[in-house]
Amino acid sequence: MVRIELDKVTKRIRKNTVLHEVTLKMHEGRIYGLQGVNGSGKTMLMRTVIGLIRPTEGSVSVNGRILGRDMEFPESIGFLLENPAFLGQYSGYENLNMLAGIKGRALTGQIKDCIRAVGLDPEDKKKYRKYSLGMKQRLGIAAAIMEEPDIVVLDEPTNALDESGVRLVQDILRREKARGALVILSCHDIGILRELSDEIFRMEAGRVVEHICLNDERQEEGGDA
Amino acid sequence: MRFIRYFLFDLKQGALHNKALLLTPAAIGALVFLDFLFKAHRYLAIGAIEESVSYGDYWFYLYGGMKEYTPGPGNAFSFPVVWMLVFAAVPFVLLNYPFRDMGGIGQQILVRSRSRSTWWLSKCCWNFVGTVLYHLMLQTVGAALFLLFGMDLTYRIHMDFIRVVYDALHEELWERSALPLAVLVLPALVSAAVNMLQMTLSLFVRPMFGFFAAALLLLASAYLMSPVLAGNYAMAYRCDWMLKGGVTGRAGLTAAAALFVAAFLLGLVRFHFYDILEE
What we know:
The complex is a heterodimer.
Chain A: E1 3-13, E2 16-27, E3 31-35, H1 42-50, E4 57-62, E5 65-66, E6 77-80, H2 92-103, H3 108-117, H4 133-145, E7 151-155, H5 163-179, E8 182-186, H6 190-196, E9 199-204, E10 207-213
Parallel strand pairs in A: 3-8, 3-9, 6-7, 7-8
Antiparallel strand pairs in A: 1-2, 1-4, 4-5, 9-10
Chain B: H1 2-16, H2 19-45, H3 55-63, H4 81-93, H5 97-103, H6 105-113, H7 116-148, H8 159-166, H9 181-201, H10 207-223, H11 249-273
Helix pairs in contact in B: 1-7, 2-4, 2-7, 4-10, 5-6, 7-9, 7-11, 9-10, 9-11
């Protein structure tokens, strides 16, 4: 079971308040959509959940353990933020294999399956630097899900993808949800966001201004922003 | 185990695959060698020195620095070009890797490793190894050119050459004939400490400002001979092994170690709260 709680999270960067008293709760087996214009704080919120930035005030806890105090990063998390970045001189498989080696959780077969799942060929020797934008994005998604993490954070995963790529991402996200992962998703396409999300947090100027529940399952334990 | 994997990754990506780290010292080594060779031939031709120079003289030409500067009318500060080039180039080529790594695949590695301390420790070790590699490359290129030109490849030094190059008075310097190990390693250690300071400062200000601070420390060290300015210990000429009343090698080792450890600890604390953003 995974549970993420943000308690009055405020983040100021060089006198700019990028998150303003954000309070919300998220649970496993659900997809949480973040909706908002550029600069509304979606990516900052994701970075806070991942542990890459520390709140100026308030706290982020994962399963009751506070990030930055009880642990530095969530135990099981996969993410894709903005532009995926891998080592240009390695192939897609080599990049993921290197990453998987850190935790030793994903096996060779699992990595290859994951690469196939995003529509790439794990046997392709093409170097990452020669990948198209769409291929880079697909590899970034594969990296986020290959270890079957409890939490999956995807920032604009459909960027640079064609129609078939977008459908593929939708299928992947549904599978991640069915597996029991807690998925946090941001997407400029409101249609896709509404189709996939169980709950949507609409953000404006660093605040969660609206909480829309699209799927009532477990709503009683859902967000209270 | 996690640290070793991390460190090997940094070593490969940040040092062995870092072309600038390998090519910059090679280019500087070759340029300084040509300058050194030209001067040595000229001094020999006009009778300012008695015999051909050795590798030890080239090493001293790289790391000697400058004699103490006494500000006053008619005594303009002359910039120690070779020494500044050698010492300021290394923080510059080591400047970006940690921050590039933090914004790229290193971000994935950092979150998977779940430890900011391991990341920082690995970057500090990489910084040290990168600095040593830079100086080794600088010296290896010099040694290769000495071999190529059929010159004397020993750590022998010629005091007449040093006196001419540094415009030294006879009574200022001890009579030496070869470079001892302690003198050989001190500049690289001080250089590693200055680079650590730069990396730590870059967690507080933009990396380029961290570089400016390191360059300023080196420049201030050249301007003022003082035991509190670490760059003095990286000038072989100003060490008491060579210069009567110069800074001591033991103090240099202590200062380098203290600066390195202080920068490491400060960075460790700072990185714990550091926001990892894509700039």
